[in-house]
Amino acid sequence: MTAALTTPQPVVTPPPSEPGGSRKRRRSYDEPPRWQIYLPLGVYLVFTLVPFYWMLLFALREPGSDSLVPWPITGEHFAKVWNERGFDTYFVNSMYVGIASMLMTLLVALSGGYALARFKFRMRMPFMLALLCSQFIPGALMLVPLFEIFRELTLLNSLWSVIIAETVFQLPLSMILISGFIRNVPPSLEEQAWVDGCSRFRAFLAVVLPLLRPGLVAVGSFAFVHSWNHFLFALMFLNSQDKQTIPVGLNTLLGSDSVDLGALAAGGVVAAVPVVIVFAFIQRWLITGFSAGAVKG
Amino acid sequence: MGRGPPVENGEAVMAEAATERTRPRRRRRGRTPRSLPYVLLAPAGLLMLGFIAYPMFSVLYYSLQDYNVTKPWRNGFAGLENFREIFTDDPFFWETLAFSAKWVFVEVSLQLVFGLALALIINQTFIGRAAARALVFSPWAVSGVLTSTIWILLYNPSTGLSRYLADAGIGEYGTSVLADTGTVFWGAVIAELWRGVPFFAILILADLQSVSKDLYEAASVDGASRVRQFFHITLPHLRDAIVLSTLLRAVWEFNNVDLLYTLTNGGPAGQTTTLPLYVAQTGIHGNEFGYAAALTTVAFVILLFCSILYLRLSKFGGDDK
């Protein structure tokens, strides 16, 4: 029965696979000359890539070398940050925070987003407005009261303080987005499932959820990248070495009296790798995902 | 408070305020209790009440207090004393406010210009487009601390880029971008630009892809140049997206302290201290929670006021859409 339910693939979500097809699309209106594309793009690519290269260079070349090519390659700096500077622990902590706050954000935002998309109730507009307004509240300025709250809850120096804080500040936007995605799924699809005897919950799982996949990937990876990167909450709420996250570890490296540039760069690479991998997977879904979340007037 | 929130959804919310949403027509079978939407919203609502609304009110409360954990004998109700001190006795507040304004304006406008240009280029069809897009967007995913790390490596006077440029005869040895009061601003601006431009490029590209190709074709047939097409078709179409993304980004640039905190820590000589950074410094290092809370309140009100003003002035969601 579920098979029958998932078959109707309506026009709801734009297909995420677009890059291959773009080449086939010949445009009949005049196109700019090639150099007008490649020249600025090339210049911009240099601006984007040189900093990355610089970090790799410092992370990979031998200490004391000032060659512009990281050769011979050494893993010394990585071994150092990983084993001596505690990046092995930081990495695990950051992963934990990133994945936990991503899952929490998705779960809570899905539930709330569904309510906002599918029901009409008195608190609906006020709630939407509150979500929108919360975008203006500076997380950095909430540090002190949040600190007090987590102290009351005895969550200070527990990763949960950071996970909760990240989730809360991810939520509004994620919920607005997800409710947009859900609204793009025609309600009739769900209704058919109800006719077939599905509960609302099962209908949601079987019919709506699969169609939300591109959007959920976008929102989820957004949440992951954000909490992986975020620095101030971890800096404030976690104070023992074995609870720190990668950005705080990097900051410690930056702040030490004689900055070991090789170790710093290697730490930077460790910080960059997961987000770059996530980004590589999602970047083509990002644009379609965000366009799909929008309702065009 | 994310980096890079999408634009159109704000639009969706606004549009919704205007038009009554069509509710899924379902037969009532008595299986869905009326409380269901509230139950579904409860987790989000409770989290936001507990960790956004409550802290906000406590900020308001503390802003009227003299509150310093290291000097408890002084603690107590202070009335509007903190605010009086901010506005009349604290020149550094005005300095940080002016710097915040400058920082936000320069960052957002440069990011918008470059992001728009980049989106227009990547929206073209050319060989290597997918790869170029992936590479160009990649700094988007990079954190403020990591950005600082990378640019500190680049700006290092003895091992950074300037040394190699000096080797090649460009510039001088020992140029320390971040320690020099004359260059630190642009040094920080460029670092933030590096990871900020992709945000605009991504959002504008998403919106560009919804412009109907027929419009360009028709304009082209009518003999409109590409420049004219840009100003008469592309830009009007992008207007709401640009308004919202600049607003979100401005708020974000105002609030975000990661980069400046780690890159310059507000220095040299307090030159690159934004208002939120000042708040963080007074609250965290100075332990003056009451004063920091008052500063927070002032910052929030300024932000809200500017945002509303901006939306009004830009005639957001205007008639031509």
TrEMBL record, chain A:
Residues 91-282 form the ABC transmembrane type-1 domain. The keyword Translocase does not apply. It is a multi-pass membrane protein. It is found in: Cell membrane. The chain crosses the membrane at residues 35-60, 95-117, 129-147, 159-182, 203-228, 261-282. One of its GO terms (cellular component) is plasma membrane. Residues 1-28 are annotated as: Disordered. The keyword Phosphoprotein does not apply. One of its GO terms (biological process) is transmembrane transport. Pfam families: BPD_transp_1. SUPFAM superfamilies: MetI-like (SSF161098). Residues 1-10 have a biased composition (Low complexity). PANTHER family: INNER MEMBRANE ABC TRANSPORTER PERMEASE PROTEIN YCJP, MALTOSE TRANSPORT SYSTEM PERMEASE-RELATED. Belongs to the binding-protein-dependent transport system permease family. This is Carbohydrate ABC transporter membrane protein 2, CUT1 family.
From TrEMBL, chain B:
Keywords: Cell membrane, Membrane, Transmembrane, Transmembrane helix, Transport. Residues 97-310 form the ABC transmembrane type-1 domain. It holds the Pfam family BPD_transp_1. Its main location: membrane. It is found in: Cell membrane. The keyword Hydrolase does not apply. It is a multi-pass membrane protein. Gene3D superfamilies: MetI-like. InterPro entries: MetI-like, MetI-like_sf. Residues 1-30 are annotated as: Disordered. GO terms for cellular component: plasma membrane. The chain crosses the membrane at residues 35-57, 103-122, 134-154, 184-206, 289-311. GO terms for biological process: transmembrane transport. This is Carbohydrate ABC transporter membrane protein 1, CUT1 family. It comes from Streptomyces zhaozhouensis. The lineage of its organism: Bacteria, Bacillati, Actinomycetota, Actinomycetes, Kitasatosporales.
